[in-house]
Fold:
Amino acid sequence: MGEKRAGKGPIIIKIPLAKYLRQIAKDWITPYVTKTYGGQVWISDENPGKCFADEGLNYIEFNESDIFYKLPKEVHQHIDLETGCHKSLPVILKEIKQKESSELERIDPK
Structure:
């Protein structure tokens, strides 16, 4: 059994979002991120099928995907993705980089 740390909560590790997403999908050819109509966000190793609102708000057809993971809210809240849609991971990483650059410019204008 693991030891409990008296008076302390869980250990939290901070890692840049882009690095986290790249690490998950490092051996995948073209990973995709999909957001269901219910708001869940998944990353998969292949282009997913469709999301269906009428079959359950969080239903996705993953088609040929062998690997797919549900991303925690702490991660996907920083990804701009409409419900029922998907984007390739390279597109999302580019958007994250642009967001980080504009945030840095806002904080430290030159």
